[in-house]
Amino acid sequence: MRALKSFIVAILFISTYLCSADLLPIPTQVQVNKAKMLLGKKLFLDPILSKNKNLSCFSCHDLTYNGADTVQYTPGIDGKIGYFNVPTVYNAVYNFRQFWDGRAKNLKEQAMDPVVNPIEMGNTISDALKDLKSSKIYNELFYEIYSDGITKANLADALAEFEKVLITPNSPFDQYLKGNKKALNMSAVEGYRLFKEKGCISCHNGINAGGNLYNKFGIYEDAKSKEYGRYNTTHKEYDKYVFKVPSLRNIALTAPYMHDGRAKTLDEAVDIMSLYQLGRPMNKENLRNIVDFLKSLTGELPEVVKDINE
Amino acid sequence: MSNLKKLLLERVDGMLVLLVSFVLLLAFLFLYLQRVDVNIQNYYKYKKSMVKIQTYNQDFDNTLMRSYRYLDNDKITQTSKKFDTELLYLEQNKLTYELGKEVVNQLHTISNKYKAKTEFIESFKTLNARITSSVYYLYELQKQVVSGKYSNIQVENLMGIILFKVGQIFLGTKLEVLNIEKYLIKLNTYRSMNKDIDYFYRHTRQLLIDVRQLIEVLEKNNLLNLDSSIVQMNKLLDSAYLKNQKTEENISIAFFIFAFIILIILIKTYLNMLKNKKEILYLAYHDTLTNLPNRTKFEDYISTLIQRNKLKYQFVVLYIDLDRFKIINDTLGHDIGDEMLMILSKRICSVLSKKNMLARIGGDEFVAIIEKKRNIENIDKLVKKVSSVIRQPIHIKKYNLNTTASIGIVKYPEDGITKSTLLKHADSAMYHAKDKGGDTYAFYNKQLSIDIQRRLELEQALVHALKNEEFSLCFQPQYYLQTQEICGVESLVRWENEILGDISPEEFIPVAEDTGFIVELGYYIFREACMAYMDWKKHDVNINLIAINISSVQLRQLDAFENFKKIIEETGINAKHIEIELTERYIMEYTTEKLTILDDLRNLGCRISIDDFGTGYSSMSYLKSLAIDTIKIDKSFILDLLENQHDAEVSKAIIVLSQSLGYKVIAEGIETVEQEQLLKSYKCDMGQGYYFARPMASNKIISFYHHKKIKS
Questions:
Q1: Counting one residue from A and one from B, how many pairs have CB atoms under 8 Å apart?
Q2: How far is CA B665 from CA A239, B611, B617, B652, B682, in A?
Q3: What is the DSSP letter of B318?
Q4: Are A103 and A117 in contact (CB under 8 A)?
């Protein structure tokens, strides 16, 4: 009887294992419209979109480092503080939704939101477009690409096009996945195994090691989040504290962690995840291995940002 | 011809309008079909989109079937994005206008359901991720508990059963059947024993919650039934498309039929136009009465013949003119005349073969072009045949009509090589035949042309002759054969022209008759004769009668009697002294109705005599009914009286017959004593001729009369 039970459970495990999702490497190349992309880059770096002309996308999303900021809450216009830690723009293109609560379907939908957010750029679309239209260069650049010139849709399109190239391929782990077994040290390899065995991979999978589903923050323990997350969009009880599962790409660079930046270190973050999400603390050794594995997810910055000086 | 052109233009304008509308209609039809084609292509695009949507939905459903297993979330995201794209494409298309409200509504339904479904899928992903990770955890925890130092067989069993039941969940067994709660309650008592047991307990609890939620989500998704909406949409799309297609097809067919009808009308109009054109041409080139070609057609034809032939082969032109047709027309009316012409044209046609053209070029003038070689060789025979068919009596209503034709014949190329000369010569030949007394034919020869020339000269000269006082009268006495007493004089006209010289009445009277000048001349002669008689009377010349020749043409004048009467009154002559001489031919040309003028003249007191008797076709019975007094035997009989037994017999017979009918008889042209003696013996009443007296001027009559009186 017991043997039979064990057998069934084994079969079960094998079958789930066989059908398990996996992590996939980031492509080294991406197809874009170069003119749009370059216009997007210019816009990304230009504070023209903000109300006081002090903030650009780049102000919060440091392309020269991690595509995000290194503090818990980055001040917006007039030093206003929000409740979300800045998510990285790197590899955002591979996210199934944008923003922590996933309220934007894609990059185009996302692009305009910070512009009009009163605690971010604090601008209005009409003012932003007006400012752009008063610029000779932007008029020329837009009309070169779009027959209707400067519009909200075209502005979003150019920014989204730029963000498409913001990917970080060739991380040690990607190289390992592609067959270079020496790319990872022993600890990281063990970390990858544990990552799968502990069930991390059930949420952090695919090309972006996450960023392709929602989950509740704090399943086994109350995470005491101030933000409701997805609930704000759907207003459904079961969507309370549900957030987009973030990508683990370049995770070593994007401290602090969690939507509210509550975890200052990667160890802390893994600990929180293990306890809140998997329902059990993780021992030190396993944690070390997993952190080592996570560090191997840091990739190369794209060519297009190399000329950006802080 | 201008009418014809106008008519044609009108027709062509109508045609043009039709043609243009036809082309426009076809163009419209073409464009419409083009639109239909675009619609079909659009439909295929929609259909393709819908097929894709259906496939993506099936992908979603496949994903949802994979509960408790790892999911390829990236793939789901991709599929979802593709679904969005297709849905957006359909929503942004002009489906509303093209496929109807129902389709759009259905599309909204799909869109809404899809939104709901994505929510379910997200929930599914979340729950499934938790559940799958739990399985690892539960297994690991169980292993740790089993291998741990707090080993408890009951706990181990409980955990084993729970894990087994979880496995059964994964294999599809229903939660209610498994009743895991029961074992969890049992396990609850051991939770405090070990942290791992607690974790196991809590994990299982969470798992059960998640599984319930997952099942709920799946049930909701089943209720959503997006697939059926998509299928429904496909059906709607198909039926809407088919409906559109059908109406478009019907409209197309209607258009096609319409276009076809217009085409038929167009063709019909065109044919009508052709027919009308033909009719107009026919009218332009044919005589409406006889349906024979008219003068234009005839002249065209003869021109083409001449051009084509270039003197290579012969043809003959017959110029057929009906004798005395004018009289029939004038006396019996045009209806009879027209009918006669129709009958005659048919008769002539029947004699001529089809190859020879017969045309009517004037009231009573026909022309035949003889091209058939056999006919040309025996042209006399053919002409005689034509003459004979014309001569046949014609019965129209109560009338029994006789007519004859004078036929002129010209040969091409001998008698002329141009159309105009041929026609002129044919006309000359015809006139020659007519001059011969009609009912005959004449070939053209050069002499005829000369005669015609002479005739034209006479015509020209006659116009001014009266004004120039070129005419004079002379008189020839008539006498009783028995007593040698003068019983009358015949007034004869003389014409002396400066250029042409003396012209005999035999030559110029027919010309004057033809031109109508005879009327004027006739009154002049009548007046002059009357005046001469009155002059004689002043000089004691008591001649009983003065004979004056009156042309039949003059008698046809409606006011002839009035004019004669006026002259008689003006000159003061007693009408009983006037004897009007008419030719026998005139009498025969006239039907009885018109002879009232003779009665009128007779009632006035005039005597009537018939000149040149014996040369015509008088019937004695006819003569009997006429109001005449004297018959003049033609001089042709008297000339050969002694030598020709036949003439003598005829003369004798005329004398006897006339006297028996109560007419006096006078013999003309007595030149010898022998002739006079013979006529005397025949009991002829009177005589006239050179033997007794030559014609003489008016004043000579006086002396002649007195001389004779003294003698007797």
A1: 105
A2: 157, 11, 18, 11, 11
A3: E
A4: no
Contact A105 B134 (CB under 8 A): no
Q: Which of A2, A206, A279 sits opposite B202 (nearest CB)?
A: A279
Higher-scoring residue by pLDDT: B529, B618: B529
Domain co-membership, B501 together with B436: no
E-assigned strands of B354-485?
357-360, 365-370, 394-396, 399-401, 405-412, 440-443, 471-480
Task: Look at residues B408, B429, B444 and tell me which one is the last residue of a structural domain.
Answer: B444
Give all domains of chain A, ordered by start, each with its CATH number: 34-164 (1.10.760.10), 169-295 (1.10.760.10)
pLDDT digits (tens, 9 = 90+) for B420-457: 888 888 888 888 888 777 788 888 887 777 777 888 88
Structure tokens belonging to residue A305:
């940002």
Residue B139: which of A13, A200, A215 has the nearest Cβ? A13
- Between β-strands B630-633 and B405-412, what pairing exists: parallel, antiparallel or unpaired? unpaired
> Do residues A202 and A290 make contact, with C-beta atoms less than 8 angstroms apart?
no
Active site residue A120: yes
CB of B79 within 8 A of CB of B56? yes
Peptide bond into A302 cis (omega under 30): no
pTM value > 0.90: no
Q: How far, in Å, CA of B390 to CA of B405, rounded?
A: 7
Residues of B whose CB is below 8 A from A202 = 70, 129-130, 132-133
Question: Do the Cβ atoms of A214 and B125 come within 8 Å?
Answer: yes
Per residue in B667-703, pLDDT (tens digit) is: 998 999 989 998 999 899 999 999 999 999 988 899 8
Does the residue B341 lie in any domain?
yes
For residue B206, give the nearest of A105, A207, A220 by CB distance: A220
pLDDT at B21 over 50: yes
Cβ of A4: how many Cβ atoms within 10 Å? 9
Task: Write the CATH number for B560.
Answer: 3.20.20.450
Name the domain count of chain B. Answer: 3
Complex-level ipTM? 0.89
* Whether B285 contacts B300, CB under 8 Å: yes
At residue B525, the pLDDT reads 93
On chain A, the residues whose CB falls within 8 A of the CB of B132 are: 16, 199, 202
> Which residues contact residue B430 at a Cβ distance below 8 angstroms, ignoring those fewer than 6 apart?
B319, B320, B321, B406, B407, B408, B442
Tokens of B260: 């076809």
